[in-house]
Every structure is written in C-alpha cells, then in structure tokens.
Specification:
The protein is an all-alpha fold. The chain has a single domain, classed as Up-down Bundle (de novo design (two linked rop proteins)). The protein is built from 3 helices and no strands. The chain is elongated, with a radius of gyration of 21 Å. About 20% of the residues are buried.
Length: about 120
C-alpha cells in the first residue's frame, strides 16, 4: 500500500490492514472454539473481512490511489481467500453433521466441581 498518498496513510491504508488482519484473527479465534458451529461463525466473520478488504481496494482504485494491476492482484487474493474459507466452512458443516467436536477429559487432573477423578476413569 506504499502507493497511497500521504493523507490516506492513516485512513484507507489502516482500514485495509485492519480488515486483512481481522480475516486471519477470526480464523484463529474460530479454530479455538470447541463446537463446529462456533468455528463456522468466526469463519463467516473472516469471509466478511475479506469482502471488506475488497471494498477498500475498490475505493482505492476509484480514487486512483492504486493501479489496475494492484487492484486485480488484490481482488484475486481476496477471491482465493474466500474460496478457501468456504471450503473450510463446508468441511466444518460435514464434520459437524457426523459428530460435534468434544473436548477430551483433561489429562492434568482438572475436573468440574462435583466430580472426582474416579468418576472419569
């Protein structure tokens, strides 16, 4: 985004960077969830952030802040990312229909209140 004018350095450039970072942050947060539907929701948020990046790139192109080649490259990257996220979401849906993700009993001897170790053996 080095081609953006100085006055856009802290507005459009920052918005593009925040949306791009949100894409991967949502994937990471969703991966940390135990139920596939929770994970899928964060994947949906991630996909929305991809489209937000594209929207900002369209604005940058319309204002002649970036070249047509830079825009095309960015659009292709967004489309690839969305396809990958959609594929992962489809995988989560298929896996969830078979069996919900469950966490194993803690190997560290930490149990919910009201349980003792002998209940979990």
């Amino acid at each position: 985004m080095a081609t953006l004018p100085q006055e856009e350095k802290y507005s459009l450039r920052e918005q593009i960077l925040k949306a791009a970072r949100s894409t991967t942050a949502n994937l990471a947060e969703g991966y940390g969830r135990f139920h596939y539907k929770d994970n899928a929701k964060f994947c949906s948020n991630s996909r929305g952030s991809c489209w937000e990046v594209l929207d900002h790139l369209i604005s940058a192109k319309d204002e002649n802040f970036i070249s047509a080649d830079t825009f095309s490259e960015g659009r292709n990257l967004v489309n690839t990312a969305v396809k990958l996220i959609n594929g992962y979401m489809n995988y989560l849906k298929r896996a969830g229909e078979k069996q919900a993700v469950h966490e194993d009993v803690s190997p560290y001897g930490i149990f919910d209140q009201g349980h003792n170790e002998s209940d979990n053996q």
